[in-house]
Automatic annotation (TrEMBL):
Domain of life of the native organism: Eukaryota
Protein's UniProt name: Gylcosyl hydrolase 115 C-terminal domain-containing protein
Swiss-Prot/TrEMBL keywords: Hydrolase, Signal
Presence of the UniProt keyword Signal in the record: yes
Amino acid sequence: MAHRAYLLLALSLFSGVTAIGQATCVSFSNENDGFPIVQDGVAATVLTSDDDWPGVHRAVQDFQLDIERVTNVNTTIYNFTSGDALTSTPVFIVGTLGRSSLIDQIVNSTDLDVSEVEGNWEAFKGQVVANPLPGVESAYVLVGADKRGVIYGLYDLSEQFGVSPWYWWADVPTTKHDDLFIDASGCSHGTPTVKYRGIFLNDEQPALQNWAMAKFTNGTGAPPRNSPFNSKFYKHVFELLLRLRGNYLWPGVLQSNAFGQDDPDNMPLADYFGVVMGTSHQEPMARGTPNEWSSENGGKWDYSQQREKIYQYWEKGAERAKPYETLFTLGMRGAGDLPMESAGIALLTQVIEDQREILANTFNGTDITDVPQVWTLYKEVEAYYDNGLPVPDDVILLWADDNWQTMRRYPLENERNRTGGAGVYFHVGDPRNYKWIISTQISKLYEQLSLAVARQATSLWVLNVGDLKPYEREIEFFLNLAYDSAVWTPDNLNTYVTSWAQREFEVSEEDSADIAQVLANLTRYNARKKPELLGANTFSLTNYREAETMLDQWETLVAVSTELYDKVSDDAKPAFFQLVHHPVQASANLYKMVISAGINNLRVRQARLSANALEEVVNDAFDFDYDLEDEYHTMLDAKWEHMMEQTHLGYFYWQQPMANSCPLTSRVQARKQALPGPMRISPEGFQAAWPGDMPNQCDIGYNCPSPSLVLDSFDVFGSRYVEVGAGGPNPFTFTATSNAPWISISPNSGSVSPEEPETRVLFTVKDWSAIEGNATAKVTFTAIAAGQKPASFAVDLVAVHNMVPDDFEGFVQGAGVVSIEAAHAARNSSVSGVTWAELPGLGRTESGVTPWPRMGNDGQNFTLGEGPSIEYDFYTFTTGANGTILVSAHISPIFNSQGKERPIGVGFQVDGEPAQSNYFVPPTVPGKDLPTGWVNYIGEAIMTVNSTFVAAPGAHNLKIWMLEPAVVVQKIVIDAGGLKQSFLGPPESVRV
Ligand SMILES: *[C@@H]1O[C@H](CO)[C@@H](O)[C@H](O)[C@H]1NC(C)=O
Ligand SMILES: *[C@@H]1O[C@H](CO)[C@@H](O)[C@H](O)[C@H]1NC(C)=O
């Protein structure tokens, strides 16, 4: 019986009746004898109180609409006045504790216990209450501690009824149900993990801006700057934000926008909805700067020269924002989000003092420490702070990332008891803006943000969301984690995406797992090299079959996504296209375009006719890129016109190019035979082709020896190939023969022509036991072309038969390297409760391992060799120079985020050799934002940390020692003398 109950519970998680990450209290049938919101076509009456917040009345109207969306039944909303006689329908009572006289009356006259709610920021509680009002036997009562507590309580039910927060913003269909019930025990929620949870609509050009202009204006935006971001637009943003359980917004800031000026309704509307407004880190005192400043002809934005004028400008900002819930940005940067020329600690201290004085005067009678304020420690401002800039204790300190979701700093131990607390600001930007498509892994957001929770940066989280679309799911995850961080762990993180897929597309559990896998791969592939940074040679065109593996992976992804797209209901297709299928296709197409250009360039150099077809592949992909954009813009009667307008091809510096441009390709003369003859021989691993002279064959570049391929018995691919290609218009047939009996050549003959210009010939070893040590096979390719003499060319295959002892278990060297995914450890020790644990799905290839829990051992570090270690067993046959091997750990980018006293480090040890510590985060050059080399780490999404050990061929053990927390190791590459250049490192070695 107990077993069965458990099963039912597990199933109910997947029945679609959930709010992601939240408790479930809604059902579509009355098996739990719940409270009927809608039953047999009759809806409960919703009772409110006219003295409640206007924002509550507004949310109740959404609640009414949501019920109708699901059931087609209209509820009645009714402001209760005592003495009213109620009709016979069930009664749903909702309101704010201490504000709604209706709620207060019920609390006074029943035994409803509101102690979990009272005084708790944004908490709510719902349950069935007996005899709440005269003549009402029982009712469902939803009580919010405050305005947003009620609103979240209502939207939580809506989400469970089946209305996605994205019903409008991503056209997610609502599944119809006849009946809706709420369990008598109801749904409740306490105070969220993070107090202020918001987004920053930055980088809203071109997409969001042009879309808003088309949809919310008559073609002309508001004076003085032609801004389209009016209250008609923001009403959609506010509703979304609240449905996602966020509460804070930094509005758009680019050329034309200033929230408070563009539409006089903007500020009151935010407050009416219940959204707390702020302004971005560089716009102090609730004013859109520089736009508002310029519109008042403010002149130079420099406090040392224009103190009085700027002071008055800020006074106006404070006065204007006073009636509305506002979290004020303090501090100051120079014009254009640049450092202020005359800045220094003294000036900034003055700025803060003056801003506090303005707030004290404006909110005369209120304690200044009760006016929420934030100061962002961004770029040079962080340096001032580190150098002693005083910050009042009640001001939230907002720490920033590196633009790429790696936090530069978390609050240190001695910074964790400030009354204002700390926060986290994630943004998007240089060394290259990436606004086009989703390229951030949820596992990465989790990794960094759970650390922010562990280090108590929970007063404020702000996520820069660019144009908002297409980051829907990731925005929601950010806000979801901020609302309830304890729900998500490394082990259940994937269910965030599977639940999300079920909610959005009403798919089966199995399909939701497939969708989650598609999205995990999409974001993994895009995160390892952002599309905006991808180059034709990013992935090796010759080593480890890397480039072709990338193309295969993307192609598979498109195939799976297409299958799923075909499978989801017609209703759900537009949403699936926006949220899954468009980004998959568009990213895959971009990768295909850029990598094919790389292969084209290489083949032109190699005098291969097949280069020409690749030029067409690139050009077609360039066209298809626009087709996809157009499809997005025209669907649903052009609802999302302009929304995918972001340029994304052909960057010249960090900011977007002004037009997309096609990657450079070239072609060979298709009408004339290459000088050395009709046949081109291109062996695996070489930039060169034969016969004839060309660079890359050997150092001199002419008269080079014929090529030699090496294949050992633990090679991951188990084969080597030679591509036989056309060197011009003349078709030929070829044979590939060898006198070595142990080699298999497949195919050993074929035809090559302009129509089929390449054939790949694989060499494998039929019988390793026939080889003692090394053996060499000569393979001769002979081409017969009409009217030409037969032409022959020979390639050597050297087979190396390596063997490991039977009792060895672990990874074995192949092709001169050992490559190990960090999660595939042999042993793992635990010290003071801290163990290296896997963060599934994170990073470029498989996952990451990191010391867990984050604040284990009281957040303290370990001495080298005394902390927890994670171990790998491996076997080598060779060494690099001087009998050494090079151990490279691929580590997720990390800053010295624990301050100067606790640099980030990790230890390595091979066998009994002395352990080596490595404090690998490069120093920051004073005056520069990022540590030396950081651009490369960002570009590669990895830091490679090297240590050298003496290690003779044989069995070995590698230990990675924890020194400091938060280090995430993704992969280990051990060079035993054969490592070749590639982006991701060699694929994982054979494990025995
Ligand atoms: C209840 O009263 C409020 C405040 O006067 C009002 O805004 C709201 O529209 C009323 N609701 C209904 C259903 O009449
Ligand atoms: C639902 O009822 C309200 C009045 O209670 C009314 O204003 C509204 O138009 C109705 N909606 C529909 C779709 O019938």
